[in-house]
Design goal:
The complex is a heterodimer of chains A (112) and B (115). Chain A contains no helices and eleven strands. Chain A is an all-beta fold and 112 residues long. By secondary structure, chain B is mainly β. The chains are: A mainly beta (112), B mainly beta (115). The interface between A and B is medium-sized, with 24 and 26 residues.
Chain lengths: 112, 115
């Protein structure tokens, strides 16, 4: 049982480039989330999804896009990378209200 | 809207000493509360959770937390810490009502256990 899998683990982008951070879970969870973690700031919610075909913005959605075509996958797209998007990105999933979220190992992104 | 405040950004403590990491939350609805631990270069791992019932919750690695509704707090405690407890700890809240899906995290407390 792999849980939540994120790829890649590390990536360096140049300003203006695009990329997709992949996230997959094999626990049949309805809810999926993308967070970014910056030093001293905790985790900030970027986007979340309550099921296939349904997504919504979190606290810091600007510069990002998501899609949820299947229950398992929840990719995060950066269209025009900016230095402010240098961060560690975590994907998470949960099954139902009140239960804990399970986290992936993170993607460390640097934009130069 | 919910929010979480972790009052200490860093807590140094000697090995085998007790520790308390503080967490206060704000919410207009009933909540579920969580503590997560993050070791260097890893994801977040659940330590414990409060959903309902007994206000004293026991988790993994000897940690426990007490839910105090009147003080809107959910402080994490361990009676005797080990070097291996050195990590960052996050308190999180999720609304208990229907239609509430988001986990809101505090800014984290870095626990450093000294030999």
């Amino acid at each position: 049982n792999a849980g939540v899998t994120q790829t890649p683990k590390f990536r360096i982008l140049k300003i203006g480039q695009s990329m997709t951070l992949q996230c997959a879970q094999d626990m049949n969870h309805n809810y999926m989330y993308w967070y970014r973690q910056d030093p001293g700031m905790g985790l900030k919610l970027i986007y979340y999804s309550v099921g296939a075909g349904i997504t919504d913005k979190g606290e810091v959605p600007n510069g990002y896009n998501v899609s949820r075509s299947t229950t398992e996958d929840f990719p995060l797209r950066l269209e025009l990378a900016a230095p402010s998007q240098t961060s560690v990105y975590f994907c998470a999933s949960s099954y139902s209200s009140g239960l804990e979220a399970f986290f992936g190992q993170g993607t460390r992104l640097t934009v130069v | 809207a919910q929010s979480v405040t972790q009052l200490d950004s860093q807590v140094p403590v000697f090995e085998e000493a007790p520790v308390e990491l503080r967490c206060n939350y704000s919410s207009s609805v009933s909540v579920y509360l969580f503590w997560y631990v993050q070791y260097p270069n890893q994801g977040l791992q659940l330590l414990l959770k409060y959903l309902s019932g007994s206000t004293l919750v026991k988790g993994i690695n000897g940690f426990e937390a007490e839910f105090n509704k009147s003080q809107t707090s959910f402080h994490l405690r361990k009676p005797s810490v080990h070097i291996s407890d050195t990590a960052e700890y996050f308190c999180a809240v999720r609304g208990g009502g229907s239609g509430t899906y988001k986990y809101i995290f505090g800014t984290g407390t870095r626990l450093k256990v000294l030999a």
